[in-house]
Amino acid sequence: MRNHMKGNREQIYEFVKLHSSVNANHGISTNEIAEALGMQRTNVSTALGELLREGRVKKSSSRPVLYSLTEAFADEEGAFRELVGYDGSLKYAVQLARAALLYPHRGLNVLLIGREGSGRKYMAEVMHKAAVQQGLVAEQAPFVMCDCMDFGADDAATIAELLGDGTQGGMLAEAAGGILFLHKIQFLSVNVRRKLLRCFVEVEDERELPMIFLSCDDEALDVISLLEDHVLAEIRLPSLTERPLLERRKLLEHFLVAEAYRTKRTITLESEVLACLMLFPCEKEILTLKTQIRKACMNAYLRDYMDHAGELHLYISDFDPSVRKGFLNYRADKEAVDALVKPQMRYSYQEGGVTVLAPEMPPAEETQVSEPQIRTDEPSPVLLFVFYGQGVARALSDTIEEQLHRGNVYAVDIPYEQKDEQTYELLRQKLLAIDRGAGVLAVYDQKVLQQMLYTISCETGIQLRAVALPVTRFGMEWSKGAAIADGVDRVYRMAAESLGALWHSPKKVIVTLCTTSEGVALQMKQYLIQHKACTDAEVIALSLSDRNLLREKLLELMQGAVILCIIGTYDPDILAIPFLSAADVLAAPVERLPELLRTQRMEKAEVDFDEMFRCLGDHLEYVDIGRLKEALMELAEQIEGKYPMSLDTKTGLVMHIACAVNRIAGRGVSIENPHREEIVQNYHGVYRDLRKYVAPVERKFHMIFSDDEMANIISILMQIQE
Question: Which residues contact 212 (CB under 8 A, 6 or more apart)?
């Protein structure tokens, strides 16, 4: 009901705003609003009362009472126009900020809540600017800002610096008549916070105080709870992931134009780079965006310092590797990104704004990418040789094609004197030209090419696998060796050792996998180690449900190892790596485990749950394994009666819940599920049933499954994969 009224209030406010813009000298009555909007008069009257108290509308002294926009709100945006999203995701925050500034007598104290880097400091600065514009504080009124992280551990010294010590007034006195902004107040001790808050209630004349802005992280619940009785205006800033992509693009434009002004250069980048910047995960919100832009511009400036060309071109390699992960999210946001970023275009940023240009083709591409694209009706992978030196790669591809006539082998020869930027662009264009929809296997000879190739893969979305074949480097090493060796045997041994190091992986790996937390994956790892099932391989436990992240991690492992198989509660069907279910491993006789891991084939057998719980009992330290086994087998039977499941799913589910009960009962720790709300909403019936089924387990072990944990259980039961 409250949300409904809030919607009515904003609708009414927008109507009054529209009416005021057309009839500047004449207000509108409650009845007129109710009739125009089709609302009940009592609801309209209530909403107008709230808007009146917030200072957003005023009423006449005549009869009937007429409502209109206050002078302060006549220019609704004012200084707040500087905020990207002031009329979008920040609209409600801006309304609260304006109401706090306009509140009678001296305004309201404000608490800005948000994640680190979400723009709390900038919001405080804009609010101060708005207060000056609207005459709420003098033009020269102080704006005193301090980061509470800068205070030491001495409470007495901190209190003296903030509130004064009898001889000096401190920051509170320094900000008199203006605004005092204490950023990240969670870093103040509880004692200091309480001392500060007493100023809000013990002062005889509030006019002696400045308006006080505070900020804290959105996870600082103890701070928020303490402040909510004293700070009357709580303004929450949305995280970057909650804001539309259009606003993120505008933020990027703002930072790029600012750097163009700072460097006195035009800044350019390709559409693929812009897409990555719009999609990559930002650990510190808007601050991360700003930092990445500044770093990339610095790299480009240093690279072109002597060139003085008047343009800084940003390549993806100018950014941190985290930016490249942006394209991992491209498919999920493809429609929105394509609507905002024109493909295969160049974006130019200068002091005056943004220009979209057609891409320029480097001269080096003309002869290298000119061969016709050979396509097939069905997607198919292709082979690309990328070697330094004149004609090395071309000779190899021509020889293969001459013998096989498959039309799926390509080459790029890279001159040693060519700049990396040219090489990068050449490879990008080549991959775009030859990809047939099923990926490219690139064979390269120098390490720098590997990084370029994988970066381009992230940019373009082309599947790419790279294999090192450093024949030129080996040839140079052997040539140097032959020049000083006393016989061919010594050179032969050198060559054999080089090739052995290249082709014989230093280690073998078995990956144990689960979707939520590392509980099941770790248990399977311990089971294999306990029974000496893989003495010649390292076991690595992973907890990943996102296929893109899993692929990235497995590719990283494959750079230095051979992955024998994946063991888990679900088959990721990825990179052609053999899969074994946890149920198959647990069902196999322990003496035959080495054979199973080697061949990935064995006749299926029933899982010995007694053996499984015995194994779990060796590692679950907070619960009695006998009571746990009894409770979970009853739970599994109950769930299976309503939701039939395979043996693999049942095994994975029981193991996961066992680990979860142990973790929650012992440490009170729940594993967050980022898709909790979506899963609970889409599978509400399953959620309701499971809540009923797990209740006896919760009572028996004195613990509660959070909604995050319930979402994890549903993900396993319904085989939900990201």
Answer: 109, 110, 179, 180, 181, 182, 200, 231
